[in-house]
Each structure stands twice: as structure tokens, then as C-alpha cells.
Design goal:
single chain; 385 residues; Butyryl-Coa Dehydrogenase, subunit A, domain 1; Butyryl-CoA Dehydrogenase, subunit A, domain 3; 11 helices; AcylCoA_DH/ox_N; Acyl-CoA_DH_CS
Length: 385
Amino acid sequence: MRRTVFNEDHEAFRATIRAFIEAEVVPVYDEWLAAGQVPREFYHRLGELGVFGIEVPEEFGGAGETSFKFQVVIGEELARAGVSFGGSSVHVGLCLPYVMAYATQEQKKRWLPGFVSGATMFAIAMTEPGTGSDLAGMKTTAKLAEDGGHYVLNGAKTFITGGVHADRVIVCARTAPPTAEDRRAGISLFVVDTKSEGYTVGRKLDKLGLKTSDTAELSFSDVRVPAEDLLGEEGKGFSYLGQNLPQERLAIAAGAYAQAAAAVRFAQAYVQDRTVFGKTVASFQNTKFELAACKAEVDAAEAVVDRALEAHDLRQLSAADAASAKLFCTEVAARVIDRCLQLHGGYGYMNEYPIARLYADNRVNRIYGGTSEVMKSIIAKSMGL
């Protein structure tokens, strides 16, 4: 079926991104995998290409687009090639919406030009050891100094994507204790300079997948954060976090769909080339049936993503809609990628094949951005259950 969610501008952009990935990422991707992260200078290259500024207003050096579809195009092309831009997906997908929504004009003038060029890479620090999805249980504190000129930040965060390369990190911290009526009260957001004294990047975490994404532990010991780096209003951080969750979950759903589509493409190419018992693997009825079933699931996931994308651009994507899209697409991708790996036989288990990397990378989709169980709870609540 013909997709109608993308227009000529999106497809022209797709052609540019595809050519860039094939020329500048694919040839060196094995080196990035071995290093466990993307070279920091590569982000300057993405800045030059305009990848970071698509949704940034022109006055700050961006293109001024309001549609999220360009980011989805990037995700689809990365999955198609079996590669990644590392932790920079958080820079745009998670951090930019908070800056655009809650930063003052003065803060935008300070941060956004560097954001667009890649000179100032952003990450966001929410999760803490022992809290997981329970953000209201965070222990990191930010206490306002007596003179009101700065906050003193203390605590620790973990699973921070982009945490090694980040120049600024949006840190969620308690500026007041929770109340008996509301555990979510008292949380604020700060855009912290990673060069600040007392700010420490701990271990770069060794993950099952997403090997080129620099995921780190962070700790803060009496870090002085200027009061002018408070993002939004004090105490409203938890509500701010909830505003961006639909887009975050849509992005994960779209990425999962793209991974599933790529898996089918990889498997189809493999079985048409691989010969056993004197004929190609593609010629066996089981192979045809397996790939046909996978294709049908991918088609369904595509329809879900496209509908959600249109709703998001119209500002009509609800929390329950996004949860439903994420739940469905991530579960589809898990099934499809597993079946496509099986069609590769033993070679599917080798990391030199992109299907093996997809298998590992895909697993986190049902965890981050809210687990599948959390998605089910949100959907059930919307049903009045």
C-alpha cells in the first residue's frame, strides 16, 4: 500500500540522509561498535548537515519545521542500514522539546545555537539507581542557596543515554520534599553544565545492545547550578516530564516498526542468496510463509505509526494513543526480528550480521520510555478500568 504520511520534502530529505549514512556511517560503523560510542566530532558533522536544527526556530539557526516526521525519516533510514547515530537521538528527540517548551528567551539564545551546530550536546537525567520507572521516588536534591543565586545539586543518576559526550544535561532533582497528598510534588528541572565542579561521569555502561550509544552513570557532589539554569518553574518538573512522553513513546514505536521492516529486508536478501540442500532457502514453503507473516505484521505496525504520526502533528496524540502505538509496535518488532533471525540460521547469531545487532538493540524498546506493563496500565486506565 502507498504511504501518504510523507510528502515530497520528506522524501527529498530521506534521499539526502540515506546517501549520508551510506557514505559516512556504514564504512566506519564497525569501528564505532568496537569503541562503544560514536566519535564526538561526528556530532559536529550532523550539525553541519542540519540534523539537529530541523525543529529549531530560524532565529536560533534552525530550519523552523514543526513536524516530527523528519525525525522519523532519520530513524527509518538508520534502521534500514543497520546503524545508529549513537546517543544523539536523545539530544533532539528528548531534550529539544523541553528546551523549546520551557526555556526562557534568554536561555534559548544561550543554548540553541550550540545545540544546532553540535557544539553543545544535550542529554537528560531522570532515572536513579533503585527507582526505575518510579520517577516520583527520586532522591537527587537541588537546594537553593541563601543568596538565591545558585542551587546545590547532590545525588546520582543511571542509564543516561548520551551521558559521556554531553555538554549540558537536563537533570531532574527535588527542590522540595514530596507531600503526603502528592509524591510528585517538589521536582524541578535544571540544565547543568557538565564541566561544573563536583559533576562526575561514572561508568560507561556495558549494554546488551545499542553498543554505539554512550550510556553512563552520573553523580553530583555539591554541584553549583546557577539559578538562571533552572528550566521552567520550580516544582513543576514532574508535570513537564509527562508532557513529552507521548512524543517519546511515538518515537520508540516508529523506531521499532523501522527495525522490524529492516529485519524483513535483511532476511529476504539472505534467504534468496543462501543455498541449502541444493536450492535457496527462499524456495522452501516455510521460508515463504514466515516472511509473509512477518510482512503482514510490519504492514500493520506501519499503519499504526502513520496514524499516530498524523495525530501528533495535529497535536491530537493522547497519552493512551501513544502507549498503544508503543506497545503494539514494540511487540510486533520483537516477534518479527526473532523470526527473521531464525531464517538466518547460525549466521543470525553472529554480530557481523545486522540481524544480530537488531535483535539485541530491539530488546530495550519494551523497557525504556515506560515498560510494556506501564503501557498496558495507561491503556487500561483510558478504558475506565
